[in-house]
Amino acid sequence: MPDQIPLTPTNPSPTPRPQRPAWLKARAPSGENYEDVQRLMRTQALHTVCEEARCPNVGECWNQRTATFLLLGDTCTRGCRYCAIAKGKPQPLDEAEPERVAASVAHLRLRFAVLTSVNRDDLPDGGAHIFARTIALIRAHVPDCKVEVLIPDFDGNWDALAQVLAARPDVLNHNIETVPRIFRRFRPRAGFAQSIELLARARAYDAQQITKSGLMVGAGESNAEVLEVMDALRSADVNVITIGQYLAPDKSYWPVDRYVTPEEFAMFRTEGLRRGFRHVESGPLVRSSYHAHGHVGEAVR
What we know:
10 strands; iron; rSAM
């Protein structure tokens, strides 16, 4: 590992909590387009990860008339310690949800749509058929709209993964989220190796499939461990990586260990490109779907 790469503390420190720096401030959401997208989500009874996960970029993205649709309801069957999405017993599956999402994509005149979901371990296919149906209906309503799917691990159900891949999303995204050392505490009921296998299987299914993954930093990992995750993702031939600052939703969640500097994010981008990623989106406010429309063009070059 290059000598100039700084090492950082490796254990989350509950106290004292670091103060949020100036470079992490985002504008309060407002504006005509923001209000239009918000109104649409309410009238169509749809959910977005932008709201449910309290994304700091919601104002910027909604004012550009983009949103990441959250499929399969708003309640997750897992208890990841970093995520603000509600956890518990979900409502029955809404089979009409894909039609409403596709209609909303058409209303927003999107050229690029991002679909993600809660985990639904209560369903035999983890909700894979809803992903596939939504992709098909978006293509029917808006033929020139590209579609990215940010999928769960389907609890290792590779038939479910194949069902999504058969619908031919333009980008298959599955977030690794953090480093192996803290993975099982950060993401109970998930596995680092299983996520790497999912991404490798997506590449094996179709060599032309653009694959993508992301992780959050500042949760107690070291910079060297981040680079090791990059190597693991490249071993699965992942094309695109996103890296952003971990922000705890409130004090009951996994604590922020430190705030990673803009200079370190620039270093991650340089190291990612050096390792062969076709596109690296790295910065304090970067989230998995941030500027997602630009990732496809970079990845296919």
